[in-house]
Amino acid sequence: MRLMKKRRLRLAQLLSGMLLLPITGCVVVPYPVSHETALVDEFEINDQVHVTVGPRELIEEVSKHIVKHNPNIELVDPLLFRDTAFPSGNWSLQELMKPENRTRVAEQLDMQYLVLLTTVLVETGEEEGFLIPFLGAMAVPEDSTLSALIIDLRQGSIVTQLSATSSGKGRMLYYVIIIVAADPMTESAVISGLSESIAETLAAESHSGRLRIAILAAETSENTGEQTSAATLLSPEELEKQSKKRLFEAKLNNEIGTYCPRADMGDADAQKHIGDLFYHGIYGIKRDLILAYVWYSLAAMGENKEVTKQLQSLVDELSPHQADEAVRQLVNWEPGQCERELNNAILEENE
Amino acid sequence: MFIMLQCYTSSQKFLYFKLATRSVITAVIVVLVSACGSYRSEYVYKLYPGPELPDSDVATLKFGGGVYAVEIDGLKVTSADYGSVKLLPGVHTIRWESMFIVSVMVNASGFDRAEADKAAILSAGHTYTLEADRTTGHGYRMYLWIEDTETGEAVAGVRKP
To answer: What does pTM read for this prediction?
Structure first.
């Protein structure tokens, strides 16, 4: 009797599970939190800070808030600003801050202030709660930060640097694939908080008069602009040549990063791959039969079966002198050589 | 089969930032994203200086399904902000990330993430897609590649066989 009941119960559980399975989804309930805005001193104008229109949604949201807080503000289209300010594609802030550039932009677009935003930085803390398969309840502290730099293009000065921060706790209840979450909306809080402060600062600067500004983003990057400007200015033949060279460099860097650590650790497949690079002279590196022999031999010792045939034919290509040198290098081989050897090969090629 | 009950998200970026931070939270949020359906923008990012050029003079880069974080020539581009990017022909360095739901035998969290940082020659008039895919079962592997949509050729990375 008890067994029957148990079976019925299991059957009922199974049926209800099957019925519930298609009903899945998520409920994210937002709740607003407060923010704080402070003056900061974190922007450094150098050639690695670039002016971009990348975070489109953020720029639009901040623009909307600023105009709402201060209807005297008129916005310049971010893309128009970028293309006017950087006709050559070098989008560095340092370039823009050169007197001839900033005054040209200010006059051409009839504007005075440029607002540069960082991206919203959302940091989550240590989660509290539990998560087991198909069930979990958690709380996660969350902090958001958004900063802005206001530049007076006509004066060439930084008006102010602001940063808004907001903290909250995200909560999440998770059952199978149904999720109920409470979003502390720290991101929205910093966006509206910072926008309000920007609008107030600009109102104080403009003395309630009409004001034309541009809102863009600032990103820090080592190579931005270089490639796009290069692509614009070079002839098609030169572009192809440069493209090939840069592609080889980038690919070789990929190879070094991916295979060298493994090859140095004794991974036979990676050692064979490095041997291939030297044997065929791939990605602009100098063809080197001696180094190919060393790496193929290491791979063969690591029991890479594919390499045996290649090693055999390579031995036939080596002169007696090269064979002696190859054996000497193999005996003296030690981990850590891979990256140096590949870099040397490309350097020799460039020279 | 998914039936959405309610989906309120302050911004897609909220999810992306969290995606990158904590594994457990990531796992849950990916489920949340997939249950809510991920938003993809239709905006075009003109990532070259000067006047707008016809499509025949520029390369177009699109984001394939499952690609959620992208950096082109050092600049961040999210699929929530833009659906495609227009670039001048030439070499561009492209970094992108992808995440998949996987067996707990592959990754205890049930999710696996991969990242690629590649350089590719993009030609004028061509459209490329950043792709990400994976195999299942024994020998699990993730593949990330850039595909020329006209020729089907992988111009960078390894295409899933």
So the answer is: 0.65
